[in-house]
Amino acid sequence: MSTRSKIIYTFTDEAPALATYSLLPIVEAFAASAGIAVETRDISLAGRILASFADQLDADKQTEDDLAKLADLATTPDANIIKLPNISASVPQLKGAIAELQAQGYNVPDFPEDPQSDAEKEARARYAKVLGSAVNPVLREGNSDRRAPAAVKAYARKHPHSMGKWSMASQSHADYMRGGDFFSSEQSITMPQAGEVRIEFVGKDGQVEVKKQLALQEGEVFDSMYMSCRKLRDFFEKTLQDCKETGVMWSLHVKATMMKVSHPIVFGHAVSVYYKDVFDKYGELFKELGVNPNNGISSVYDKIKALPASQQEEILQDIHACYSGRPEMAMVDSVKGITNLHIPSDVIVDASMPAMIRSSGQMWGKDGKLKDAKAVMPESTYARIYQEMINFCKTNGAFDPTTMGSVPNVGLMAQKAEEYGSHDKTFEMTADGTMRVVLADGTVLMQHQVEAGDIWRACQTKDAPIRDWVKLAVTRARQSNTPAIFWLDPERAHDRELQKKVETYLQEHDLSGLDIRMMGYNEAIRVSMERLIRGQDTISVTGNVLRDYLTDLFPIMELGTSAKMLSIVPLMAGGGMYETGAGGSAPKHVQQLIEENHLRWDSLGEFLALAVSLEETGIKTDNPKAKLLGKTLDAATGKLLDNDKSPSRKTGELDNRGSHFYLALYWAQELAAQNEDAELQAQFAPLAKTLADNEESIVAELAAVQGQPVDIGGYYRSNPQLTSQVMRPSPTFNGAIAALTA
Amino acid sequence: MSTRSKIIYTFTDEAPALATYSLLPIVEAFAASAGIAVETRDISLAGRILASFADQLDADKQTEDDLAKLADLATTPDANIIKLPNISASVPQLKGAIAELQAQGYNVPDFPEDPQSDAEKEARARYAKVLGSAVNPVLREGNSDRRAPAAVKAYARKHPHSMGKWSMASQSHADYMRGGDFFSSEQSITMPQAGEVRIEFVGKDGQVEVKKQLALQEGEVFDSMYMSCRKLRDFFEKTLQDCKETGVMWSLHVKATMMKVSHPIVFGHAVSVYYKDVFDKYGELFKELGVNPNNGISSVYDKIKALPASQQEEILQDIHACYSGRPEMAMVDSVKGITNLHIPSDVIVDASMPAMIRSSGQMWGKDGKLKDAKAVMPESTYARIYQEMINFCKTNGAFDPTTMGSVPNVGLMAQKAEEYGSHDKTFEMTADGTMRVVLADGTVLMQHQVEAGDIWRACQTKDAPIRDWVKLAVTRARQSNTPAIFWLDPERAHDRELQKKVETYLQEHDLSGLDIRMMGYNEAIRVSMERLIRGQDTISVTGNVLRDYLTDLFPIMELGTSAKMLSIVPLMAGGGMYETGAGGSAPKHVQQLIEENHLRWDSLGEFLALAVSLEETGIKTDNPKAKLLGKTLDAATGKLLDNDKSPSRKTGELDNRGSHFYLALYWAQELAAQNEDAELQAQFAPLAKTLADNEESIVAELAAVQGQPVDIGGYYRSNPQLTSQVMRPSPTFNGAIAALTA
I want to staple A77 with a disulfide (CB 3.0 to 4.6 A). Which of A141, A574, B348, B587 is the partner? Predict the structure, then answer.
């Protein structure tokens, strides 16, 4: 079997990982009929922790570094990877996983908050690589092509999800810094030739400290920018005062998981400004205790447990007293009293803002009611698109899924492009001075005056990915026969550099009959929305951050979820990666499974990705059976949508496992009904019959287990055997699948 | 003296007319030095009423029809007209003027509400021509070129007017019909050759009623459209319900004066929907009494005076009861309890919306406080630009007069273009049926299904004005070296016809180096605003309604008033008309003069217009003295602004008369200081000296009279002798001016 006849199916975390226990045996059985092996690679948070410390574990507990192997594979033409959503871990999540692994007998070190010894520093460095969005950047050796498949779009038009009504009198809005943020200070250059650069800090005393050395490629775009700590804190205070005056709820929206260095700091300032009185009063004590506002107000709750009860109570009272001087805050969980500032990973801007816009521009208040809110998003670079959409909804009402068009995306993503690769070039200033980027010969390319506390960062965007991105945009515009807009803001230094390259690389393509334009973000989103409400499609061709934001924002309006998007990464080396379920790894789903044995995760994204992956395999290895498997899987998926066999949110109704059964049934039926391949026809006709004949008993077996708590032996690393038993509760169904490969 | 050495100064109404009593003697004296005669023409409301009924008046009270004479003049190359603002009379204003004239012994007939006899019908027809905006359409034989003069813009940057802060949480917005309005039903054709058309109504029974016959020119654009009465009333009800729910004030913004046939009907529906319970209960009685909601709720108050006291009281109680079920309404005068629905002429959209936007998007509530409001503007065609600006201010804050750019306007206005000439082609349907536009040969050009109560109208736009407008736009873009945007909405039938013509006529000009674009209204205003806040200018090239709206909207943001705009009408026949004070005729100013003998009217617009008029005269008649008068007047105006000698709003401080004194002083000083013309130098040096020497005593004489009520013998037609005495209270100043021509 050629290596190309292998599909790599990633094993990740939470709901997608649970669903994998049910779906993978089906996929393996079907794929085997075309001679295709389906192998898993463990890139879960727990798996990555274990791989990082393999050298320190007992021999029987050591694992290979699957992520590193996948990263290598991604740079070869053989790659054919189904990539499921995984946890982008915040510090609290990481700590949770560590604790769980230690309890399971894995001898991994604690997360060192304040590393002192060499061993602690080493552990901290290894954990840093596990934190945040640590998987996608290393796998994404290609740009991104995301769109709503026709069957999904048709389903949404026929069965529209709920959309909260918008009032023209809504007070909701997105507020952002007007100066002092990354946008205002951005500088950008394009390297005329390859070269070494140093990132240096020059102190007031003239001392030079080299922060980082980098080898840049010819044609690489290199940006630097900083956020003023003082202005950021002023901004937070101003937004709080404003909310206090207007009675609008205050809500913070950052991306502390992905922007794992800069945004936790931003988040921390929000926490220490909101609870300013407490942080002022207990500054010294909190320092001693190791309180870190970057981990949320929960860090205070955690750390003060070390104090005597009376002192704890005093601090809690002072925290409580803060609320009277501050505006109401949006709640993550109003029942449990968990706000937006509790931990940094609860509210992630690209998911939280579409949710707010879908809910009439409102968020949950502490009384469990939806209310207008000020969405606070310090970085004006991207916040403006949300304000634009909010204004649009105030004026035109909520989007109508039954009539609206679509905004697919072609995103610049390869090789850690832009801010999403900036983590190792992000620094929190410890003193006033100058940050500068210097060539080996001493030429200063860029510099900023900074103050202690400011966040300075540099971003890289390599030339080859840009060129590939332009090609992908033109290809997509041609294949979809749809206008495409490059979102490039003429007021951004970085975008002006990109614009020159886009203009150059567009000349490499036949643009006849295509409608390809460049616009600033506000104009681009506005034009796209005006077209959207008129039922017209517009491809957004964007940088890496907007790719991430927009492929949640528009799908959530159009489809109710971003998990139903077809998300293809044509790898630059020739392989393919097929990402599924952009909606995240869904901790709430796991909770429901454990408490009620119902998994509402929708594997639609996996179905869609598998179909494309099978088709690609078929084309690349000249395997007609593989192509047919892909084609029939797509048809089965369409039928599943039409027959409304997607998982229900309600315990007792059809769940993830049930929808896998229907997928298998419809897929087998499609294969049995086709005439292109007699072998496959013969092989799947019996399965189709068995499944159809036993539909009632299988569905009953799947339903019977629901309603009771289950034990899967772990959250971050559940027990495989227990989980498999929970996720495959129908002996009839399991038997039918087993019979296929028997 | 050539006829070209004559400037026609219009005599109008209210504050501008009062100011004329003070300013004109100065102007006459200065102009005489260049051999230029300044003649007045009475186009006041009172003057037009008297002219309309000259044949019915006593011989000694007959006047000539100055407006008709001016209209003739405007079509000749000799025209040089200074046009001051005049009353666009609503029915209540017209009645007020009639009553005053009758009291002054003029035997003009009453305004027949419901004309029966032939005489009444004849009177009604004559009054119809006096109503509303009856002056501008007949004089405007050219397109419009309006901009902020450099001195005025510089002054505003240095001495910014107050701008209310905007909150991002503001609930204010502009609401408009989403279907059923003129926009949605508009049809438009361009006449391939000259031809007669009939506007006909075809009843359900097939009966054809010819409403109007028209001779259209070759290339003329002809539109037809209607507003659904049912949908309009539903819309009003919906907006009222919405305000009741959200707690936002309700406020109606129409243009019942200019759109004198269609908008009073729209206004009337607002009244009868808001007070629905009352109009339902007393429908029959109100009919008998002659109550007309189109005249406002004041019509009820007026008409029920004929009833017994007890019945009056019952009705008043029922009116009062309406308020409890309705949202709070924006007040015109909260002290007197006068709302937006009192009379149709109080709230005029193009003035009221900029005022609201300048005041933080708020209007006055019944408690005398500023509050957020829903600005209800049924016609979506133009309402959208206000919503766009409101969203923009919510997002970017109030405009900053010290840094903002400018939006001059080139407006299509000549020969009653577009809606502003539609009054004689506007019909309120009395039955269901079809309205259609038919060629002489029976070809149906356009048609609409209509219902009783619907408002149908047709608009004309002649080809020559469009061609001239394109030329004026290119000329202005070239002379100002400023980008120009044609505001043409691709979704409007009329604008699509215009767009074709613009494309054709642009080819007649050298466009090299010019930035001329076409955009829909939303995009055009958004781009203009984005440029504005970056200090950049953008010429708006618009149709007639937008011309009117934008030349209030932007100047009020930029300069605090539209009265300071330079407003030139290059007449198509070669003459020139110079309009002043687009801000209206200011009834409140008159009130202050009568009660406190202080006139706060700012004649700046007259100064600016006169300077251009004198310069044009100089060029056309090769009169260097005239040119010099113009140049020095401009310099004097700049000095007046610099020295802050504009009228104060506060009684006791420098008023209109005082600023005229300073203008005369500076103008004389400029003429005395120049070396181009020795004769003028010699003539004005003594005046400059006299005025400078007597500055203190003249200002004291002007101040001394303030603070007491005065009698000018009338409002619509004041007594000339009394008024002149009031407006020229300084013997020292009067003597100095008299000496000039002695």
Answer: A574
pLDDT tens-digit map of A345-394? 888 899 899 999 999 999 999 999 999 999 999 999 999 999 999 999 99
- In whole angstroms, give the CA distance from residue A734 to residue A737: 5
Show contacts of A293-296: CB within 8 Å, 24+ apart: A293/A267, A293/A268, A293/A269, A294/A91, A294/A264, A294/A265, A294/A267, A294/A268, A294/A344, A295/A90, A295/A91, A295/A92, A295/A264, A295/A268, A295/A343, A295/A344, A296/A92, A296/A267, A296/A271, A296/A341, A296/A342, A296/A343, A296/A344
Q: What are the residue ranges spanned by the domains of chain B?
A: 3-141+571-741
Q: Is B446 exposed, middle or buried (0-12, 13-18, 19+ CB in 10 A)?
A: buried
Helices B695-704 and B656-673, interaxial angle, to 10°? 160
- The DSSP string of B132-159 is BS-SHHHH--B-EEEE--HHHHHHHHHS
Residue type, A663: L
Mutate to test the interface with B, among A170, A171, A363 (most CBs of B within 10 A): A171
Q: Which amino acid is at A97?
A: A
- Phi and psi of A195, rounded to 5°? -175, 160
* Signed CA dihedral, B418, B419, B425, B427: sign only: positive
For B1, counting Cβ atoms within 10 Å of its Cβ (0-12 exposed, 13-18 middle, 19+ buried), the class is exposed
Q: Whose structure tokens read 């004949």?
A: A693
Alpha helices in B275-368 (DSSP H): 276-281, 283-289, 298-303, 309-325, 349-358
ipTM of the complex: 0.86
C-beta pairs of A680-689 under 8 Å, 24+ apart in sequence: A680/A33, A680/A34, A680/A625, A680/A628, A680/A629, A683/A33, A683/A740, A684/A33, A684/A740, A686/A739, A687/A736, A687/A737, A687/A739, A687/A740
B167 with A374: Cβ contact below 8 A: no
CB half-sphere exposure, A715, CA atoms < 13 A: 21
Per DSSP (E only), the strands in B404-551 are: 409-411, 426-428, 433-439, 444-450, 455-461, 484-487, 516-519, 539-542
Task: Determine, for residues B168 and A167 on separate chains, whether the beta-carbon distance falls below 8 Å.
Answer: no
Name every residue whose Cβ is closer than 8 Å to that of residue A341 and which is 6 or more positions away in sequence: A252, A267, A270, A271, A274, A275, A296, A297, A329
User: Which are the contacts of B322, defined by CB distance < 8 A and separation ≥ 6?
Assistant: B274, B275, B276, B277, B278
Instruction: Tell me what pLDDT residue B2 has.
Output: 44
Rounded Cα distance between B243 and B706, Å, is 45
Say if the Cβ atoms of A394 and B173 lie within 8 Å: yes
Shortest Cα–Cα distance, A735 to chain B (Å)? 59
Mean pLDDT score across all residues of chain B: 95
Q: With a cut of 50, say whether residue B210 has pLDDT above it.
A: yes
Whether B246 and A169 lie within 8 Å, measured CB to CB: yes
Instruction: Report which of B230, B227, B264, B233 is spatially closest to residue B435, judged by C-alpha positions.
Output: B227
Is the model's pLDDT at B224 over the cut of 90? yes
User: What is d(CA A542, CA A539) in angstroms, rounded to the nearest whole number?
Assistant: 9
User: Would the pLDDT of B3 be above 50?
Assistant: no
AA letter at A566: L
B54-78 tens-digit pLDDT: 999 998 889 899 999 999 999 999 8
Please answer whether residues A4 and A619 qualify as being in contact, where contact means their C-beta atoms are separated by less than 8 angstroms.
no
Chain A interface with B: residues with Cβ < 8 Å: 167-171, 173, 175, 242-243, 245-248, 372, 374, 387, 391, 394-395, 522, 526, 530
A85, A584 Cβ separation under 8 angstroms:
yes
Res A3: pLDDT:
47
Residue in B165, B166, B170, B171 to test binding to A, most A beta-carbons within 10 Å: B171
